[in-house]
């Protein structure tokens, strides 16, 4: 039935769990708008027949509708609008809330290619390899201009903005290949800025990961920081950029907040409120540190917009993430 409808409406393959939901909403919107259009058409035609002037001497007919009918004309569209809103908002919230156990992958748009980086290394150009049946969270940014990461089979599209991370998650239920397009005009070769998502079975994905790891310069154990890993690169960036002159990694506050345990914490803000220190906040704090100043600290940090590349800011975020004090009994985070 689902497959039949999909073909009937000329929609691309449903490559993710989200695609099925989006298509259901799409059919529902089409059917209800069609029903409303037919209803309004029928009422219009019946009014034409019923109220038309039969001769020049006729008085102009007055349309008199009983109160309940007026109520119906207002109530039906209003409840439909509200229902569309509720259904759409539920999907919006769902797609904005990646599950905890997601596999993180950094996506960097660049004229005119997509770069995919796994926090534990390695990175790949234009081909994103993911396991089936596991949620994958993409942290999307751009190195130059605004691009838009678009996977039609997943019904997903998200802008890639320089100096900022946007995120997106999906779960592909079965192995397959799905095209990636850039959906924001970004220059001469915009139309060839294509990539591919390759979904492997969990076993094949494990084998692929092992093969990747074997190709690393130093044999890496699962969960270990490899020389290729973004966290290690982030540590170098932090030293080179002088971050560690103001931020400690030991837990002691200095000129700026300590990075130990910063990721995932709620930080109280100067002027009230609090913010969750996630990828988006950490990146914003590098690019525009005065946008949200943590309470108790002087607003003295310079902005790094234009001074940190997308790769470097992502690496810094991964370095800060790696400084999470492990609770006793917590297994070391699995690094892909
Ligand atoms: Cu990148 Cu269009």
Summarize the structure.
The protein is an alpha+beta fold.
Kindly describe this structure.
This protein has 336 residues and is of the alpha+beta class. It has 3 domains: 2-54 and 64-96; 103-214, Sandwich (Immunoglobulin-like), CATH 2.60.40.420; 230-322, Cytochrome c-like domain (Cytochrome Bc1 Complex, Chain D, domain 2), CATH 1.10.760.10. The protein contains 7 helices and 12 strands. It has helices at residues 2-8, 17-51, 67-96, 202-214, 230-241, 279-287, 310-322; strands at 103-110, 113-117, 123-125, 127-131, 136-142, 147-151, 156-160, 166-170, 176-182, 195-200, 266-268, 274-276. The strands form 3 sheets. The protein has a 5-stranded mixed beta sheet, with helices on one face. A 5-stranded mixed beta sheet has the order 4-10-9-6-7. Strands 11-12 form a two-stranded antiparallel ribbon. Strand 2 (113-117) and strand 3 (123-125) form a beta hairpin. Helix 2 runs antiparallel to helix 3 (67-96) and helix 5 packs across helix 7. The longest helix is centred in the N-terminal third of the chain and has 35 residues, at 17-51. It is elongated. Mean pLDDT is 84; it is low at 217-225 and 328-336. The chain binds dinuclear copper ion.
- Separate helix tally: 7
State the separation between the terminal residues, measured CA to CA: 37 Å
Overall geometry: elongated
Q: Give the helix level as a range of percent.
A: 25-40%
The CATH top-level class label of the largest domain: Mainly Beta
Please state the average pLDDT score: 84
Number of strands: 12
Low-confidence stretches: 217-225, 328-336
CATH architecture of the largest domain: Sandwich
CATH homologous superfamily heading of the largest domain: Cupredoxins -  blue copper proteins
Strand share of the residues?
Answer: 15-25%
**Radius of gyration over all CA atoms, rounded:** 27 Å
The SSE string, one letter per element, is: HHHEEEEEEEEEEHHEEHH
Give me the side-by-side strand order of the main sheet.
3-2-1-5-8
Outline the biggest β-sheet: 5 strands, mixed
């Amino acid at each position: 039935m689902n497959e039949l409808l999909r073909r009937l409406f000329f929609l691309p393959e449903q490559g993710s769990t989200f695609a099925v939901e989006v298509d259901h909403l799409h059919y529902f919107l089409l059917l209800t708008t069609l029903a409303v259009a037919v209803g309004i058409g029928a009422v219009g035609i019946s009014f034409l027949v019923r109220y038309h002037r039969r001769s020049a001497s006729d008085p102009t007919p007055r349309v008199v509708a009983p109160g309940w009918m007026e109520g119906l004309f207002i109530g039906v569209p209003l409840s439909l609008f509200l229902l569309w809103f509720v259904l759409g908002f539920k999907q919006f919230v769902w797609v904005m809330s990646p599950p905890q156990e997601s596999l993180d992958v950094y996506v960097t748009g660049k004229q005119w290619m997509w770069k995919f980086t796994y926090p534990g290394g390695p990175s790949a150009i234009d081909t994103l390899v993911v396991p089936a049946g596991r949620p994958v969270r993409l942290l999307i940014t751009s190195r130059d201009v605004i691009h838009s990461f678009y996977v039609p089979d997943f019904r997903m599209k998200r802008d890639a903005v320089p100096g900022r991370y946007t995120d997106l998650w999906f779960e592909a239920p079965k192995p397959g290949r799905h095209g990636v397009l850039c959906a924001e005009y970004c220059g001469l070769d915009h139309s060839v800025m294509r990539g591919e998502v390759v979904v492997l079975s969990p076993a094949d994905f494990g084998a692929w990961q092992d093969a990747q790891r074997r190709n690393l310069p130093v044999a890496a154990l699962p969960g270990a920081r490899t020389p290729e890993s973004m966290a290690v690169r982030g540590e170098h960036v932090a030293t080179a950029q002088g971050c560690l002159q103001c931020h400690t990694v030991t837990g002691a506050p200095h000129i700026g907040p300590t990075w130990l345990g910063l990721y995932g914490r709620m930080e109280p803000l100067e002027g009230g409120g609090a913010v969750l220190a996630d990828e988006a906040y950490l990146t914003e704090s590098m690019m525009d540190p005065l946008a949200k100043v943590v309470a108790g600290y002087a607003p003295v940090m310079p902005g790094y917009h234009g001074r940190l590349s997308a790769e470097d800011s992502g690496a810094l975020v991964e370095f800060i993430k790696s400084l999470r004090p492990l609770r006793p009994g917590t297994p070391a985070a699995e690094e892909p």
